[in-house]
């Protein structure tokens, strides 16, 4: 149950972070948004260091750095994806891709989920697809470029989660600190190289920083959940984060929620219940 609650908390934090990051990327170049979000995320993890501890072993440094490179790509690709929109289609597509790889890795590593888990996993995947169901006439459809960005963002998120899971379980927040330090360095370097192409529009500072803070909280909750439970279960529950993004997009941006998405939310609830029995 603790693993389930941690994974659900991670999912909620990711959904809120993606919504704020996507909005921020609509106001200025995506790198301007990420340049604020990534250091804000690193600050949170440094503040957690004295409370949760950190052991910077070679394994923690290596896997943390790998997750940081993937995180930098995920930040840029995801926020750019959500900036193009529509959020309530592209976010679930990204989530589905981000769940498939960690689930596969978990099963290949011999995780035994039992009958309830094996039923819950495909049901949760179905829920993610239903949340991205067609919206009928009058609703904007994503472009091919937006879909490709969503696929790339999903793959980058998946790699980030897998790399974090591979870090030693006794390393505390060391993988998170290392990863965020690397991703911040990569993002700042990219922003410096592309400075003249970033435009003069100022980013939404508070919104971008809040997105980074929430992303850091989501990463921490995922890491704690993955250390206490099965990667396959934690990954697929975390991948339900588009529910939060979709509901926020509805409430704030008035994006339509199709009946199929409502069915998807109900399906997600059933899937989480089954996974809780694992």
Write down the oligomeric state.
single chain
Q: Biggest sheet: strands, sense, closure?
A: none
Number of helices: 11
Strand content: under 5%
What is the averaged pLDDT score? 82
Provide the gyration radius in Å. Answer: 18 Å
Overall, the morphology is globular
Tell me the series of helices and strands, N- to C-terminal: HHHHHHHHHHH
How many beta-strand runs?
0
Roughly how much helix do the residues carry, as a percent range? over 70%
The low-confidence parts are none
Distance between the termini: 10 Å
Q: How does the helix and strand content classify structurally? A: mainly alpha
Write up what this structure looks like.
- With 278 residues, the chain is mainly α.
- It is 79% helix and 0% strand.
- The protein is built from 11 helices and no strands.
- α5 (114-131) packs parallel to α9 (231-238) and α8 (205-228) runs antiparallel to α9.
- It is globular, with a radius of gyration of 18 Å.
- 57% of the residues are buried.
- The mean pLDDT is 82.
For the structure shown, list the relevant keywords.
79% helix; mainly alpha; 278 residues
Question: What is shown here, in short?
Answer:
The protein is an all-alpha fold and 278 residues long. Helices cover 79% and strands 0% of the residues.
């Amino acid at each position: 149950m603790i693993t389930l609650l941690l994974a659900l908390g991670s999912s909620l934090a990711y959904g809120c972070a993606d919504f704020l990051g996507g909005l921020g990327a609509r106001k200025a170049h995506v790198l301007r948004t990420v340049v604020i979000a990534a250091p804000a995320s690193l600050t949170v993890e440094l503040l957690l260091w004295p409370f949760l501890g950190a052991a910077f072993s070679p394994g923690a440094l290596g896997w943390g750095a790998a997750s940081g490179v993937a995180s930098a790509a995920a930040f840029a690709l995801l926020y750019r994806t959500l900036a193009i929109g529509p959020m309530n289609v592209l976010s679930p597509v990204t989530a589905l891709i981000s769940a498939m790889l960690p689930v596969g890795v978990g099963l290949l590593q011999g995780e035994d989920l039992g009958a309830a888990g094996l039923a819950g996993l495909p049901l949760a995947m179905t829920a993610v697809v239903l949340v991205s169901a067609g919206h009928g006439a009058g609703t904007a459809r994503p472009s091919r470029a937006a879909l490709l960005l969503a696929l790339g963002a999903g793959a980058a998120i998946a790699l980030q989660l897998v790399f974090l899971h591979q870090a030693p379980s006794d390393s505390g927040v060391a993988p998170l600190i290392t990863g965020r330090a690397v991703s911040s360095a990569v993002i700042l370097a990219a922003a410096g190289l592309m400075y003249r192409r970033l435009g003069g529009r100022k980013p939404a500072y508070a919104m971008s920083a809040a997105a980074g803070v929430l992303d850091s909280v989501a990463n921490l909750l995922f890491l704690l959940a993955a250390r206490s439970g099965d990667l396959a279960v934690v990954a697929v529950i975390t991948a339900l984060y588009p529910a939060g993004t979709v509901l926020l997009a509805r409430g704030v941006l008035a994006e339509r929620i199709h009946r199929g998405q409502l069915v998807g939310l109900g399906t997600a609830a059933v899937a989480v219940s089954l996974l809780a029995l694992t």
